[in-house]
Amino acid sequence: MYTIINAEDYFYSLYKRIKESKDRIYIQAMSIEFSLHNKIISDEIISAAKRGVKVYINIDWYSKMYTGKQMNKLPIVNKDKRNLTYKIKIEHTREIQRMKKENVDIAYLNKPTSVLGEYIPFIGRNHMKFTIIDNCIYIGGANLSVQSFSNIDFMMESCNKKLIDCAINLFFDNRSNHTSLISSMQIANDTTLLIDSGKSGDSVIYDDSLNLVSHSQKSIKYVSQFLPDFSLLKKMKQAKKRGVSVDIVTYHKGLALSKAKGKIEQLLFNMFSEDLNASHIKKYVHAKLLIIDDLYTIFGSHNFSKFGVLFGTQEIAIKSTNPSLILSLSTWLEEVRMKNY
Hints:
- Helix content is 39%, strand content 24%.
- The chain is an alpha+beta fold.
- The chain has 2 domains: 2-169, Endonuclease Chain A (Endonuclease, Chain A, 2-Layer Sandwich), CATH 3.30.870; 198-340, Endonuclease, Chain A.
- It has an 8-stranded mixed β-sheet, with helices on both faces.
């Protein structure tokens, strides 16, 4: 069984499951900040560790490079932003120290090996997001940072044992900065786990996404914080010409974390999209979802962009033909439209 929960409900579901945990907790995300309201989660993690629950946390080094929406290595001119960034960083550090004192096993992944790497935060990142609590797993696009739970995003909740076992193996492989697991693993008759190990230029998730779009017959539903890049856009235009409806959903360009990046994306999209249009949500879209013909879906941490592929980003995704899962994802998308257009 698979359940789709939005980012805000993910926070409350995490809180409840951690509070009731009895055996194990594994948390993996690119950006984790135990500060402000997230301190509620760290309090429960510490309580769980004290009662004997084994707790492991993987945090990509990105969390040491960025605090909130600000890069730590660069000066912050705005006083309010500077003060908030400092507060978040101090509180996060304090919470990490508190957890370590209770034997919570915390690992920072992919430390930059050069000065250049410290100033270019998108090279060699682990972008995976999944959490395992006892016999339940969450997998999707949500981080555990200050703004994550207010984004347009979702996580899939499941008790699939094969998926959980595979994710635990992946969790510890990530600590050694390699993936010994095969790039895809069938976890049910209609559902497959896809893994990008971080080899530059190589992505089973991106390739499968292109393949599904290429073979679409009726409809394409695309949700991402990135507008479709050139390769994906080309496939979408070909689909549109053969009568396929193409629905592209992203955030409003005024909400871009990087104004320059947002403008460049929009410029390229306008130049090459021809008769394709994008719908812009009023809130920041962080979800990554592709639904083809209401029969196939891919979702997870991958933004369906070649950008991360070129820079060796480690990713995780679910590929499925499960009808109830696809219906749940479509329902989630329609609810997003109703609330945010």
